[in-house]
Amino acid sequence: MKALITAGGQGTRLRPITYTINKHLFPIANEPMIFHALRKVAKAGIKEVAININQGDKELPQEIGNGKKFGLKITYLEQKGGALGLAHIISNAKEWIGKDDLLFYLGDNIVAGDLSGLVDKFYKEKLDCLLTLSKVRDPERFGVPIIKSSRIVEVEEKPKNPKSDFAVTGIYVYKPIIIEAAAAIKPSARGEYEISDAHTYLIKKGYKVGFEEITGWWKDTGKPEDLLEGNSLILSSFSGLNLPTKKYPETIKIEGAVKIGKGTKLKGHVVVRGPVAIGENCLIEDSCIDPYTAVGSNVVIQGTEVSHSIVCDGTQILDCGVRIVDSLIGRNSVVKAEDYSLPSGHKLVVGDNAQVEL
To answer: How many C-beta atoms surround the C-beta of residue 136 within 10 A?
Structure first.
């Protein structure tokens, strides 16, 4: 079995963050999002992986490399013609897939547990296609299965009036017949080759399509709040302390599961309440870092409380004197008190699609 991981698209719902960083490289618990997918694939025993990328993308191959550090052999496939749907990604990769079985993994999805059980079920039940399902609050955002007598009889892509509260999640297992299915369908009203249509093709042709409900957690990180929830879910799996030093003065309080990188200094009165991840070479001074916060490397936080947020590398948060919550702060940003410099007042440099609360 091979694995094909998607990492294309423009991440428009995450702008302005994705103007300067590929969505799949955005850090979740201080690690690029796609690294979580690669580790899941490797743990399932799969060795050969292709990553679907946008035409001309040099950033992903540079950041990920050849896969050696994950125990994988990675090939990069540029999606010719642009983003034309998930089934088009299958067609674009048909020569690489060949006659092998395939695990198809959307690189912006985060799941609990490993994937071995899905692969085992696929082979044990001699399936041609295995879909993973999860109950969601907004099924109209996803492919929605129509289930009758414990069988999937059709899959509707982003229906206006969903017939169930199940979504087909971004992890699929296929026999190579999926290549035929992807080639047989026509573009949808959105102008895309929908993977849901390929699944319906297999069902109507009599191929064996099974499903497995994900009973733990699954997250499609399509919106800012999804990134924060995915970050929280990964941080929740932390346990114990991983600190650069065993001794801190009494003014430093560390509680719960906390990971702090090498070279990071805690000064003055600091409270860190896990689960929290703090990167390398940071300065946290007279501040409180509350649960479900990931702080990147080379970050300075002074005189501020930060909770349930993602703070990327190189950022400075200076003497804000307020509590920052539910926030995504991009690389090398500066957040500071209104009176940090004169004249006092709220000074903003706000790009397209930004969200600001004062």
So the answer is: 17
- Structural domain including 280 reads 238-336
Domain count, the chain: 2
Do 50 and 71 touch, CB atoms closer than 8 A? no
Count other Cβ atoms within 10 Å, centred on residue 318.
16
pTM: 0.81
Identify whether residues 148 and 14 lie together within a single domain: yes
DSSP 17-78: GGGTS-GGGSEETTEEHHHHHHHHHHHTT--EEEEEE-TT--HHHHHHTTSGGGT-EEEEEE
The phi and psi torsions of 239 (rounded to 5 degrees) equal -145, 145
* Whole-number Cα distances in Å, 51 to 38, 70, 130, 147, 178: 10, 14, 20, 31, 17
Q: How far apart are CA 59 and CA 140, in angstroms?
A: 32
Domain harbouring 324, CATH code = 2.160.10.10
How confident is the prediction along the chain (358 residues), in pLDDT tens digits per residue?
999 999 876 655 656 665 666 778 888 889 888 998 899 899 999 999 999 998 888 888 998 989 999 999 999 998 887 778 899 999 999 999 999 999 999 888 777 677 888 899 999 999 999 988 887 777 787 778 777 766 777 777 777 887 777 877 788 999 999 999 999 999 988 888 999 899 989 989 999 998 887 755 555 555 677 788 888 888 988 888 888 887 889 999 999 999 999 999 999 999 999 999 999 999 999 999 999 999 999 999 999 999 999 999 999 998 877 888 998 888 888 888 766 666 666 666 666 666 676 6
Among 350, 213, 238, CA closest to 293? 238
